[in-house]
Structure formats: structure tokens, C-alpha cells
Amino acid sequence: MSMSYKEKSLIASLSATLLVFGWYFYQVFSNQMFNIGHEFTFNDIFRPIILIVVLEIIIQSFLAGKDKNKEDERDALIELTSYRNGYWVLSIGVWFLLIQLLYVGSGGWYDILENSSPAFIPHLLLLFFVLAEVTNFITQLYHYRKGI
Amino acid sequence: MSQQTLADKVGVTRQTIFAIEKDKYSPSLEVAFKISNVFKVPLEEVFIYD
């Protein structure tokens, strides 16, 4: 079975997201943990976001020119199911962060925000947004291949 | 009739027709009725509930 426009678009978006944010979070969390090199600030968050938006525009314009951009009820159903899975990942991440904020300064092993820079919390939140998006892409690809 | 022709007549993608044939997707009643109308046969001759 040949791949539809949606599947090609999903694979391209998933690859771009994993590459851009994988590289970015590797830089952020290795610096956060080992305190080396560039000190990341809140404004650094916008760099990968702008990069991924530009990449998405290039990918979508390239694919749209090659294939028909047509969606039907199966695409809508797969998209809804996948967004629900992504929502669960995001919810778990936000609740985890909220609970962590309650324990800031307690000094226990569960206090991962202790001694972290102020930019660590927004980066952690961005990480959960990205994980939710990756879950959404992977779930969609799974349903396109295995059925729904 | 090719998958693409049927898809065009029903108003879905060719991949959806392929998924229905391979039992990987259960279409809505609207699409099921449209498919049976294309073949001019009753719904139960095209789809079997199991």
C-alpha cells in the first residue's frame, strides 16, 4: 500500500520534531545537570519553536505540491483518537510539574527542581508539549498502518 | 472498478477504500450506503456484520 499525503506529512513532521527538539533538549538538560557551557534562559525556548515552524512550512509546501491534500472521515477519526492520547501525555506532564512545584525546597529526593535555574521549569513544560505532539504523531502513524 | 474510481465516487481517499477492503476500518453508515449505491446492490450484500 502506497503512503498517503497524511502519512508522508506525519513522518516528515515526526522526524523534524525529533531532530530539532531532540538536539535542543539534549543541550538544555546536559547543561542543566552538569552546569557546562551556555546558560539557557527563557528566551532560548523560541529558537527551536521558530525553527520547527519554518521546517513545517517547507515540508508542507513541498508535500502539498506533490500530492492531493484530501482528507476524509477516516483521517478525522484517526486525528481525534491521536489528539486524545497526546492530551493524556500533556496532562500527566502538567500534573507532574504542578506537584513538583509544591515540593520545591523540601530537599527530598523527589524535589527535582531544587537548585535548578528559573528557565528549567518552562523547558520542562515545553518537553511535555513536545512529548504530547510526538505521541500524537506516533499514534496517527500506528492507526494508518494497523487500522482503527 | 479501481479503488481510485470507487474512492472518487464515494468521496473518500483511495487509502480508505483499501483499509475497508482489508478490514482495517469500519466506514460510517453514510459511506457504507454510498458504496452500496455505486454498486447498485443492497447494503447487506457489500458489508457483513461479524
Describe this structure as you would to a colleague.
- The complex is a heterodimer of chains A (148) and B (50).
- Chain A is 73% helix and 0% strand.
- By secondary structure, chain A is an all-alpha fold.
- In chain A, helix 1 packs antiparallel against helix 2 (46-66), helix 1 packs antiparallel against helix 4 (120-146) and helix 3 (73-102) runs antiparallel to helix 4.
- The model of chain A has no long low-confidence stretch (mean pLDDT 86).
- Helices cover 62% and strands 0% of the residues of chain B.
- Chain B has one domain.
- In chain B, helix 1 (3-10) crosses helix 2 (14-21).
- Chain B has four helices and no strands.
- Chain B has 50 residues and is an all-alpha fold.
Largest interface (CB within 8 Å) is between: A-B, 12 and 15 residues
Content-based structural category of chain A: mainly alpha
> How many domain units of chain B?
1
What can be said about the biggest beta sheet of chain B?
Answer: none
SSE string of chain B: HHHH
**Proportion in helices of chain B:** 55-70%
> Assembly state here?
heterodimer
Supply Rg of chain B. 10 Å
Beta-strand content estimate of chain A = under 5%
Helical content of chain A (DSSP H or I, runs of 4+): over 70%
Mean pLDDT of chain B: 92
Unreliable stretches of chain A, pLDDT < 50, 5 or more residues?
A: none
Label the structural class of chain B.
Answer: mainly alpha
How far is the first residue's CA from the last residue's CA of chain B? 26 Å
Overall shape of chain A? flat
- Number of distinct helices of chain B: 4
Helical segment tally of chain A?
4
- Tell me about the biggest sheet of chain A? none
